[in-house]
Amino acid sequence: MTDTEVINMTDQSKRIVLIPAYCPDKKLLELVRTLHKMDFSIVVVNDGSNTERAPLFAAVSGYAAVLTHEKNKGKGAALKTGLEYIKNTFSVPYIVVTADADGQHLPEDILIVCEKAENNIGCLILGSRIIGRDAPLRSRIGNGITRQIFRLSTGTAIYDTQTGLRAFSNGLTDYMLSVEGERYEYEMNVLLHLGQNNINAQEIPIRTVYIDNNSSSHFHPIRDSFKIYREILRFSASSLLSFCIDYGLFCALMALTGLTVLSNVLARTASASINFSLNRSFVFGSRTHILKSAVRYFLLAVIVLAFNTCILKLLIAAGLPYMLAKIITETAMFIFSWTVQRLFVFKEAKT
Length: 351
Description:
There is one protein chain. This protein is α/β, with parallel strands linked by helices. The chain has 2 domains: 2-219, Spore Coat Polysaccharide Biosynthesis Protein SpsA, Chain A (Alpha-Beta Complex); 231-345, no CATH class. Helices cover 54% and strands 13% of the residues. The chain has an 8-stranded mixed sheet with strand order 1-4-3-2-5-7-6-8, with helices on both faces. Helix 1 (26-37) links the parallel strand 2 and strand 3. The two termini are 28 Å apart. Residues 1-13 and 213-219 have low confidence and may be disordered.
C-alpha cells in the first residue's frame, strides 16, 4: 500500500527529482534541502524503512512529497510508485531525474543531467561515473563485468550501466512504468529494452562519490546480480539447449550419412524451431504477433544457417574434426544471433 504523507509542490514545476529511499541517513535530508533551494520539486519514496527513520522522513516531508511502502518492495518498485505519482500529479511537460538517497549524487550533477535532458527530449540521459582506482573493489569489478556483458548482449557501449542518476522527459514515463523488474534488475532492464523501443541513451560524466567504501548500498551481490543478468542467462540456457539438440542430431546424421551440408541443415532446422518457441515466450517475452516474429526469425535462421554451414565446411576442410568444428562454429554465431533477435526478431513496436 502506498500513501502520500505530505504534498508540498505545484503543477507549475518542470523539474522533478525522484528519490527511492530504504533506511536512509541524514544525507537524504541534506540532499532534499539543497535541491529545494535549487527550485526542484522532489518526490521521495520511503520503501519500507524501519520505524527508526520516521523522524527523518517527517523532516524530509517539509521539502518533498513523501510516498510510503509499508513493506520493502525494492528499488524498481519504488521508482515506479514515484513515477505513477508524478504522472498523475504534474502537468506536462516535465523532466524527471532519478537519484539515490545515500548522497552519492551531488546536487550540481543532478542539475547537469536535468539540463541535458531538457535539451534532448525523448532521450534517456545517464550520469556516468568514472570508475577509478579509488572506487571500492566490488564496484570496479561489478561495473566492469556488467559493462562488457551489456555491450556483447546489445551491441551498445554504455560505460556506467549501473548508474542511478538518470534523467528523461515526460514522454518516456509510460515506457519507464512498463519495464519489468521490482528491485535492482529494473534499472538494467530499462537499458536492455531501449533499442526495442527506439529510445536513445546519452551519457554525461559526473563526479564519483563513495562514502564509507559504499557501505550504505543495499545491493545484494548474489541475489541482485542474478536478477540483473537473468534475461541474458535465459538466452544462454535456451541457446545451450538448442545447441545440444543441434549438436546431437548433427553428429548422429554425420555418422549415418557422412554428408556435412545435409546433416547441418536438418539439425539446424530442428533446433531452430525449438529455439524460436523458447526465445519468444521464455527469454524475451515478446508480445509481437507470432507470424510477424516467425517471419523475422526465419530470415535470421536462413542467414545464420548460411554462415554456419560455410564456416563449418571451411573448418572441416582445414582439417579440424567435425565435432570440434561444430562447437567452434556455434560459439562464433552465439553473440550474432542474440543481438539480431533482441534488436530485430522480437523487437516491440515503438512506445
